[in-house]
């Protein structure tokens, strides 16, 4: 069995390594210096914002649109699978 000093070292490493990492990388100055300049690459205008439906009719229309898209994707996938099955096998 390992000596007690080894167990104490491992315990210290397991406890204090994550704490030291959080203290280093969680510092606001470090974040602003290293991460802040790269945040401009991800503009909010590039992300499509979805507005929730306001009433029941809008909700039903959105659900119908999503259902049609899902069925169209399924039909496309089924036709692709059928086309693969019709290929001659070697």
From TrEMBL:
UniProt GO cellular component terms: mitochondrial inner membrane
Subcellular localization, as worded in the UniProt entry: Membrane; Mitochondrion membrane
Keywords, sorted A to Z: Membrane, Mitochondrion, Transit peptide, Transmembrane, Transmembrane helix
Protein name: Uncharacterized protein
Coiled-coil regions listed: none
Membrane topology: Single-pass membrane protein
Principal location class: membrane
Any one GO biological process: mitochondrial respiratory chain complex IV assembly
Single GO MF descriptor: unfolded protein binding
InterPro entries for this protein: Pet100
Family named by the database record: Belongs to the PET100 family.
Highest classification ranks of the organism: Eukaryota, Fungi, Dikarya, Basidiomycota, Pucciniomycotina
């Amino acid at each position: 069995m390992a000596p007690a000093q080894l167990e104490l070292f491992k315990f210290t490493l397991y406890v204090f390594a994550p704490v030291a990492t959080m203290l280093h990388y969680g510092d606001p100055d470090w974040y602003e210096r290293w991460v802040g300049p790269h945040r401009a690459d991800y503009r909010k205008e590039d992300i499509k914002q979805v507005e929730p439906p306001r009433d029941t009719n809008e909700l039903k229309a959105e659900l119908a649109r999503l259902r049609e898209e899902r069925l169209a994707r399924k039909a496309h996938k089924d036709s692709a699978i059928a086309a693969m099955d019709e290929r001659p096998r070697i």
